[in-house]
Amino acid sequence: MTKPKYKKAIIVIAIIVIVTVLLSFLANSFIEQKIGEELQNVSESTKIEYTSINANIWTGNVEVESPTILISGETTNKTILDTKLKSIEINDVDYWDLLFNDKITIESLVIDELVAKYKHNSVVKNEDYQSSFLDKIKQIIHAEKITINKADILITDYDNDSLILSIPNFNFEVLDLKINPEVSKVKDKITYKDFELNTKNLKWATNTYDDILINEIQLTNNNATIKDFKLQTKYSKSEYASILTKERDHFNVSIAELRLDNLNFGFASNDKFYFKSKKVYVNAPKAKIYRDKLVADDFSYKPLYGTMLRELGIDLGIKIVEISQGEISYLEKVNADENAGQLDFSNMNATITNLGNTFGDKDTTIKVNTTFMENSPLEVNWNFKVADTSDQFMFKADLGFLNATQMDQFTKPNLNVDLNGELIQTYFTISGNANTARIDLKMKYDDFEVSILKKNGKEENKFLSSIVNLFVSEDSEEDRNKYRYGQGEELERNTTKSVFNFVWLNIKVGLLSAMSGDGKKNR
Question: Are 123 and 249 part of one and the same domain?
Answer without folding.
Answer: no
